[in-house]
Amino acid sequence: MISLPLAFATSLLLGMRHATDADHVVAVSTIISRERSMLRSSGIGAMWGLGHTLTILVAGGAIISFKWAVTPRLGLSLEFVVALMLIVLGLLNVAPHTHSPVATSRLKPFFIGVVHGLAGSAGATLLILPLIDEAGWAILYLVVFGVGTIVGMTLMTIAIAGPALLVAHRTATLQRQLRFAAGAISLSFGFYLAWRIGFIHGLFTADPKWTPL
């Protein structure tokens, strides 16, 4: 029991670090490139973290409680869904728009966080199982990890949105260019992830190799 406080502190820090993963930053940056408000931008980060945390608790709790096995092919498949989502987000940003950028649904970042959480839940859960074998404490660890992710993504979103909003407020043209650039990055990174997961890590081969987180 003496090591539990250290384990939970580590979980909080890991959750905050997890929020800075490249695919997370790219996804959220693509969404906030449409915003003109720091408050809405920070809310997007928090909603993403909430969706991510909810999925980790549900999927991770099921893995812990029912001793579900996560195969390399399943883990890679969940990560491949994230790559496809980044491609879709990129396409939505680079395509011409006729609606106001601020009309983005508040639920959009939540559902994107849910998709990311599907990929992260298996990795986060498998990471702690060798350390904490009691189901109740392991699930609490996931809760703390999720809180760290929410805090980390909110802070990351604020850090990204600040300079972007200063530029975007100058002219509408700059905001369109910023939105297009974010979409192009998301599109490129999504294709790169899809290729790496499919062929380098072997999702589409006979010998998939997957390392949690």
Description:
By secondary structure, the protein is an all-alpha fold. It has one domain (8-200). 77% of the residues lie in helices and 0% in strands. The chain is built from seven helices and no strands. α2 (22-32) packs antiparallel against α7 (172-200). It is globular, with a radius of gyration of 18 Å. The two termini are 26 Å apart. The model has no long low-confidence stretch (mean pLDDT 84).
Ends distance? 26 Å
Helical proportion, percent range: over 70%
Helix tally equals 7
Mean pLDDT: 84
The number of domains is 1
Please indicate the percent range of residues in DSSP E strands (runs of 2 or more).
Answer: under 5%
Q: List unreliable stretches of 5+ residues.
A: none
Number of DSSP-assigned strands? 0
Order of helices and strands: HHHHHHH
Rough outline:
globular
Topology:
Elements: H1 4-18, H2 22-32, H3 38-66, H4 72-94, H5 107-128, H6 135-168, H7 172-200
In short:
The chain is 77% helix and 0% strand. It has helices at 4-18, 22-32, 38-66, 72-94, 107-128, 135-168, 172-200.
What tags apply to this protein structure?
mainly alpha, globular, 213 residues, 7 helices
